[in-house]
Design brief:
Layout (H helix, E strand, L loop, with lengths): L1 H38 L2 H7 L2 H10 L2 E9 L5 E5 L16 E2 L5 E4 L5 E5 L3 E6 L3 E8 L2 E4 L9 E3 L3 E5 L3 E6 L2 E9 L17 H6 L9 H10 L6 H33 L7 H16 L2 H12 L3 H25 L3 H8 L5 H39 L2 H12 L3 H36 L1
């Protein structure tokens, strides 16, 4: 009876603890979420959120805008894709939706809005719903025909008038009148306006008559595409190569450095405790500092460049590989080492033929996995060190205008990571499979 009472008391206490834990754990999680809610200022974030900006940013990633600009100072017209000089229409040409004589130039924005550019810096906007809007530059002031408060899609002041429509925008300032017309797609992705192959279909280039008398169609089109000054395909592919090389040098360099150091950190191969302690703390130090921190430090020491990024990856991964490899060495089978030793092998030979073959699957699996992971990391590191696709991505984001280029670079990074993932998986299966077949 005494034993049953003790068992009953223990069972009651156990159920009581489990019941308390069942309520305590959710309560702690809920309390933490409440803390996060206020600590991260979630209500303020919701108030500051601007979904219109998010929608504009998303639409800019798959669309472009053509600028029609009239200078108020020199009375000159300019037509350019994204407003860039590299996308400027050649002299004597203009978009087909710009019509009429110079003294009454009509610009069809595409949503029913027609903008007419008149002499003396006057502008008329025929809006399909609002009607006619007139604006003019008078004594350095932008004057409009609004008698009452303008609609919410119009921003008007004496210095600047901005009218936003579904398909474009009109901006009038003291220095110029600028009309933006939006269109879907990545314009000039293949050829610029100055290339003879612009506007030609693939069938015309491959099977049609020779377009440029000085070049064959395939060679000329390939050259103009690769050297496209708007999208810079050649520079982008070179940057992709730099990013992959950065990840490759950093990963395999770290593996080469970490392998011999791992022997000094493994208890079975390093008899001195002081040596093991020093090596393990060294591994903790190098992997404990994030790769981005090493990137900043090395960039200050050696200057920017892809090699600096590779060194940052090498230092960080040396610590990680050292820990992984030393743990693998701790678990090797002693019988295989004894078998090699029985043949009269020297210490280096025992390591080479008795130890290394056992840890090769672990080494290769981890190295190839980190190679794929470091390909992503090299993109961010390149943005700091000034190398690879990360630099181009950062530059495109800083301009705050060509978000289609940002989307282009992001797509390339995703494709690069997918290919590296496939390649590392294929190579891992081949190499590890061979190792397992042999042993």
């Amino acid at each position: 009876m005494s034993d049953l009472s003790v068992l009953k008391s223990d069972a009651t206490a156990l159920f009581s603890r489990k019941k308390t834990a069942a309520f305590a754990v959710p309560a702690v999680i809920f309390a933490y979420l409440i803390y996060v809610f206020f600590a991260f200022d979630v209500p303020g974030l919701a108030q500051r959120a601007n979904m219109e900006n998010a929608v504009t940013l998303a639409s800019d990633s798959w669309s472009y805008k053509t600028h029609v600009t009239r200078s108020h100072r020199i009375d000159e017209m300019d037509y350019a894709i994204e407003g860039e000089r590299k996308g400027r229409y050649p002299d004597g040409t203009r978009p087909d939706w710009v019509t009429g004589p110079d003294d009454a130039l009509e610009v069809d924005i595409g949503d029913g809005t027609i903008v007419t550019l008149l002499p003396d810096n006057r502008t008329e906007i025929a809006h399909p719903e609002f009607g006619l809007i007139e604006a003019a530059l008078v004594d350095g002031t932008v004057v409009t025909s609004f008698s009452d408060t303008p609609p919410d899609w119009v921003s008007a002041s004496p210095r600047r008038v901005a009218i936003t429509t579904d398909n474009g925008r009109i901006t009038i300032t003291r220095s110029k009148t600028e009309i933006f017309r939006y269109a879907g797609g990545w314009e000039l992705f293949f050829f610029t306006l100055y290339s003879p192959y612009h506007g030609k279909s693939l069938t015309e280039i491959v099977f049609g008559e020779q377009i440029d008398p000085d070049r064959t169609n395939l060679s000329g089109a390939s050259y103009d595409f690769w050297n496209n000054s708007m999208w810079r395909h050649g520079d982008v592919m070179w940057a992709i190569g730099e990013t992959i090389l950065m990840a490759f040098l950093g990963t395999f360099g770290a593996a080469i450095v970490a392998l011999p150091l791992a022997f000094a950190a493994a208890k079975r191969f390093a008899p001195f405790a002081a040596v093991r302690f020093i090596m393990r703390r060294l591994f903790d130090f190098t992997r404990g500092v994030d790769g981005l921190i090493w990137t900043i430090v090395l960039a200050r020491a050696f200057g920017p460049g892809p090699l600096t990024g590779a060194l940052a990856i090498l230092i960080t991964d040396t610590g990680t590989f050292g820990k992984i490899f030393s743990e693998a060495l701790e678990n090797v089978d002693e019988k295989q080492i004894e078998g090699v030793s029985s043949t009269g092998a020297k210490p280096l030979q025992r390591y080479r033929f008795g130890v290394i073959p056992q840890i090769v699957p672990v080494l290769l699996a981890q190295i190839l996995y980190f190679l794929e992971s470091n390909t992503r990391s090299a993109t961010i590191i390149g943005a700091i060190t000034g190398g690879g696709i990360g630099l181009l991505l950062t530059q495109a984001m800083q301009t705050q205008k060509d978000w289609e280029e940002v989307a282009y670079y992001i797509v390339l990074v995703i494709i690069m990571v997918m290919l590296m993932d496939w390649f590392s998986g294929w190579l891992r299966g081949k190499l590890i499979g061979r190792s397992e077949d042999k042993h």
